Amino acid sequence: MSEFPSAPAPGEPVPAVRTHGLVKRFGAQTAVDRVDLVVPRGSFAGLVGPNGAGKTTTLSMITGLLVPDAGSAQVAGIDVWRDPAAVKARVGVLPEGLRLFERLSGRELLLYNGQIRGIPREEVARRAEELLRVMDLAASADKLVVDYSTGMRKKIALAAALLHNPEALFLDEPFEGVDPVSANTLVEVLRRYTASGSTVVFSSHVMDLVERLCDWVSVMNHGRIVAQGPLAEVRGNSTLNEALLQLVGARDHGEEGLTWLGSSSA
Ligand SMILES: Nc1ncnc2c1ncn2[C@@H]1O[C@H](COP(=O)(O)OP(=O)(O)OP(=O)(O)O)[C@@H](O)[C@H]1O
């Protein structure tokens, strides 16, 4: 795998995330094509782009879940694929699909995660109760995860990802299927987390939310980064949605087709 072209200059802060020439192929398709992603430490960063742009695949390679075909990724200056254990100890992940231990209660899930992370039992119990309360899950703490709603699943998964107080959080579509009340709770928790200097990187299709929350944005299209930087720079004088449509090109499928659709057709 290729090396980083240069280490940060002396005095230059080490970014929370930095990838160089990251590539992932699935058969003949290059899903991620030489991606150089940078996220400064302490950012609330959005990774945006159309369906199939390569966001999930990129996040999976950065968090040690998927081996890249080429290139490299660093989290807090540590090479993910040279020292995956060190990186995994420093990051929290809310992956796509949310595979959880369904037959545990919410509280048991947190206690179990804490034990896996090697946190002392009493400390885990203290943090678990606090997270359950902040996430509005205290009343459902003894319910099995399999019986949780979509929003409750996101909240317990976020609680599990935060339990070991990671330096950086990677969230794949954290607000998908979450009601506005629960979304507010998630936002409050994440804002508090970044205010203390930790980093959040999340993928989303909800541009209004990215615009409201993020101070840093990376835009992907067809496996590549097509824009990246402070939100104000990427957005310019338009909304983020308008900027995104310009960057990735509005999909024009023409006037033809679907003539059968609608009540006026036979
Ligand atoms: N395991 C896989 N096997 C084959 N192709 C895959 C696999 N995972 C992803 N792909 C392909 O790689 C491309 C990028 O997928 P990816 O899930 O990273 O995109 P995305 O930007 O997260 O999309 P979305 O916004 O729809 O979640 C897509 O064309 C997808 O079909």
From TrEMBL:
SMART domains: AAA. It comes from the Bacteria. It is a peripheral membrane protein. It holds the Pfam family ABC_tran. GO terms for molecular function: ATP binding; ATP hydrolysis activity. PROSITE patterns: ABC_TRANSPORTER_2. CDD domains: ABC_DR_subfamily_A. Keywords: Antibiotic resistance, ATP-binding, Nucleotide-binding, Transport. InterPro entries: AAA+_ATPase, ABC_transporter-like_ATP-bd, ABC_transporter_ATP-binding, P-loop_NTPase. Residues 17-247 form the ABC transporter domain. GO terms for biological process: response to antibiotic. It is found in: Cell membrane. GO terms for cellular component: plasma membrane. This is ABC transporter ATP-binding protein. It comes from Sphaerisporangium rufum. The lineage of its organism: Bacteria, Bacillati, Actinomycetota, Actinomycetes, Streptosporangiales.
